[in-house]
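quick one before i forget lol
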Amino acid sequence: MFQKNDYVIYGSNGVCMVKDIGPLDIPGVPAERIYYTLVPRYTKDSQIFTPVDSTKAVMRPLICREDVMQLIEELPDIEPLWVTDEKQRETQYKETLRTCDCRELLRIIKTIYKRMQERIAEGKKVTASDERYFHMAEESLYGEFAIALGIEREEVKDFIAGKTGQAREMQAV
């Protein structure tokens, strides 16, 4: 069980702080059921109420700084996803985003970045689907990395580029 003031990852909401733990004083909600009150870190004026025993969304502790640094070190070895069918690719992106797994989010970002580069080289536009999932993966991953590293979310890209020495390639990661 998480404690008050813990940072957690809560599904597609990303980084949240546990503001409170206890029953909700809301008509129709059983008084004996215990809830987390979560405050999303990057969404203003928002709260989420979720039962402590719920399994509907992924809820896990944040990655630690050491694990972030390890993932950054392993980044060149993380294989992109290669799914040629557009519908299957989008399904894979959705499923991967739902896992809230940092390594898998890096795979999505790396995959879409490479696809974007290939499409641009062929004189084609980047697909709306790729842009949407790229942004979603970045928001989720960079928000978590920022808290773990003690930096702003906007600084994460440059931090990764600096650590990998691949500033040009990493502009999209």
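fyi Residues 167-173 have pLDDT under 50 and may be disordered.
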